[in-house]
């Protein structure tokens, strides 16, 4: 009976170490049907979103969801630690012999305590292994505790460096495409700047951003759950807008060559497909239409106002629709899985960019109005 407990402990230790290696060290997505980390995120995310669904305020709900990413890392590391402690206690229960200084009987519960103090190298010495196997197991577990500390110290900075790198381009998108960003706003703000080199330079930056997003979020899937600093921004919104913009240019825009747009679209679409698989997103045949025929007319009209003319051939809508079908099912499925809101093709009403807003604005404006004889012209 005790031997079977030890075997189960060895199996548990092996599974946890393999899962930690695949999650932290191995830089690729694992195709195996069951993984502890994947199961952990599936179960905890479903429960977290259920709690969030009871929050009526959109901003508060988004803030609550933002806690999940960082907390899930701490919970996952703690889950691994508890699993290893329990696994070593099982092995010690079947193979080791121990002596307690107070002369009390050694129970499985006390072996879990002994395993915990060994793993975290407390070294109280109140329970002592008395045979060679038990001593060897204690040394191995203590060494594994040091390795676990190294994982914590090394893993978290890498995660946050990748997160910070991702957010830089998302923040830059605020002034270029609005808040939330839209493809129409992006092209409208560049309408006064017809230089092909400028647009290609922006697309090259986003091509690299999409490649970095794909690499980092496959290597560290927890980043998929990290939300941006502003509730109207997200990595999925930025990716979707860039796919929308490049789709329009590939369909045809007067005076713009689509060569660099095609390269950016290819990498962005690759990221959308692979990351959708990473979160086990499911295809939704009933996903809402993002760009209706009426919306497309509004997009054309708005772009013309800013000097951007889309291709108007009979096959224009069909060409754009074919490109959209290459990525929209994936971004729709990820939005549903991760509780993100996809950006529209054109904003329904004008809104201030994030950089234009401040919690002081109302107070400053009220104070300026209180000044006698104050007029806007006084500043010029």
What would your notes on this structure say?
By secondary structure, this protein is mainly α. It has two domains: 151 residues, Helix Hairpins; 192 residues, no CATH class. 65% of the residues lie in helices and 2% in strands. It contains 14 helices and two strands, in the order ααααβαβααααααααα. The protein has a two-stranded antiparallel ribbon. Helix 1 runs antiparallel to helix 4, helix 4 crosses helix 5 and helix 7 packs across helix 9. It is elongated. The C terminus is likely disordered.
Features of the shown structure:
2 domains, 2 strands, two-stranded antiparallel ribbon, mainly alpha
- The fraction of residues assigned to DSSP E strands is under 5%
Low-confidence stretches: 375-380
Roughly how many Å apart are the termini? 89 Å
Helicity level? 55-70%
Could you say which structural class the secondary elements and strand pairing correspond to?
mainly alpha
Number of helices: 14
Query: Could you say how many structural domains there are in total?
Result: 2
Report the count of strand segments: 2
Give the strand line-up of the largest sheet.
1-2
Net shape:
elongated
Q: Provide the residue-averaged pLDDT.
A: 86
Rg: 28 Å
- Biggest pleated-sheet summary: 2 strands, antiparallel
Order of helices and strands: HHHHEHEHHHHHHHHH
């Amino acid at each position: 009976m005790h031997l079977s407990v030890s075997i189960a402990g060895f199996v548990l230790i092996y599974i946890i170490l393999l899962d930690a290696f695949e999650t932290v060290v191995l830089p690729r997505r694992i195709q195996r049907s069951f993984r502890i980390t994947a199961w952990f995120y599936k179960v905890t995310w479903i429960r977290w979103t259920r709690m969030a669904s009871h929050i009526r305020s959109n901003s508060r709900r988004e803030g609550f969801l933002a806690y999940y990413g960082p907390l899930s890392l701490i919970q996952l590391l703690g889950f691994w630690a508890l699993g290893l402690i329990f696994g070593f206690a099982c092995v010690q229960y079947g193979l080791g012999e121990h002596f307690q200084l107070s002369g009390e009987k050694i129970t499985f519960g006390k072996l879990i305590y002994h395993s915990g103090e060994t793993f975290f190298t407390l070294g109280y010495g109140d329970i002592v292994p008395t045979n060679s196997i038990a001593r060897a197991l204690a040394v191995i577990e203590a060494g594994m505790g040091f390795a676990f500390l190294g994982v914590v110290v090394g893993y978290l900075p890498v995660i946050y460096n990748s997160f910070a790198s991702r957010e830089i381009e998302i923040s830059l998108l605020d002034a270029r495409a609005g808040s939330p960003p839209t493809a129409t706003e992006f092209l409208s703000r560049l309408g006064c700047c017809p230089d092909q080199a400028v647009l290609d330079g922006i697309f090259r930056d986003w091509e690299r951003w999409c490649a970095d997003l794909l690499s980092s979020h496959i290597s560290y899937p927890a980043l998929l759950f990290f939300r941006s600093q502003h509730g109207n921004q997200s990595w999925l919104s930025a990716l979707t807008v860039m796919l929308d913009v490049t789709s329009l240019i590939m369909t045809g825009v007067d005076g713009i060559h689509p060569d660099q747009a095609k390269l950016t679209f290819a990498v962005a679409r690759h990221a959308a497909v692979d990351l959708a698989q990473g979160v086990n997103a499911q295809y939704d045949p009933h996903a809402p239409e993002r760009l209706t025929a009426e919306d497309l007319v509004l997009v054309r009209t708005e772009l013309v106002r800013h000097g951007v003319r889309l291709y108007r051939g009979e096959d224009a809508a069909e060409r754009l629709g074919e490109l959209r079908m290459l990525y929209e099912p994936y971004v729709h499925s990820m939005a549903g899985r991760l509780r993100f809101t996809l950006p529209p093709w054109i904003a329904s009403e004008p809104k201030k960019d994030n950089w234009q807003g401040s919690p002081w604005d109302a107070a400053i404006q009220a104070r300026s109005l209180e000044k006698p004889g104050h007029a806007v012209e006084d500043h010029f």
